Amino acid sequence: MLAVIYHFVGKKDIIINAANKKARIPKPGAPAALPSPQDVQVPVCPLCNTPVPVRRGEMPDVVVGEHIDRDCRSDPAQRQRKIFTNKCLKPGCKQKEMMKVICEQCHKNYCLKHRHPLDHDCTGAGRPLSKAG
């Protein structure tokens, strides 16, 4: 099998025949060789070095950009995106708040909806201070 390597230099393509190491410049208007359908390269994320799968017809740059925006584990901006890190400790609640909301009785962190002792079934100081609701 004959191996051919293409290089782009300035305004001209240089074709190097790997068998005899000779370079030639193709004639103007000559058809360019198309890549084989079996030649598939999987792009790698530049931040986390994981392969990013690309479907046929998708632009690899766009898919890698979406990976960086959504799924990348070592994105430097990921730490900055985590503003709401204070998770509510009420079972079943997945709400996160920007600031800690600590119950004065049980000293646990809750969201604004469950911040009152009656709202999170507080077991801190015996019983809640009020039953207003």
TrEMBL record:
GO terms for molecular function: zinc ion binding. GO terms for biological process: proteasome-mediated ubiquitin-dependent protein catabolic process; protein targeting to ER. GO terms for cellular component: endoplasmic reticulum. PROSITE patterns: ZF_AN1. Keywords: Metal-binding, Repeat, Zinc, Zinc-finger. Signal peptide: none annotated. The keyword Metal-binding applies. Residues 82-130 form the AN1-type domain. This is AN1-type domain-containing protein.
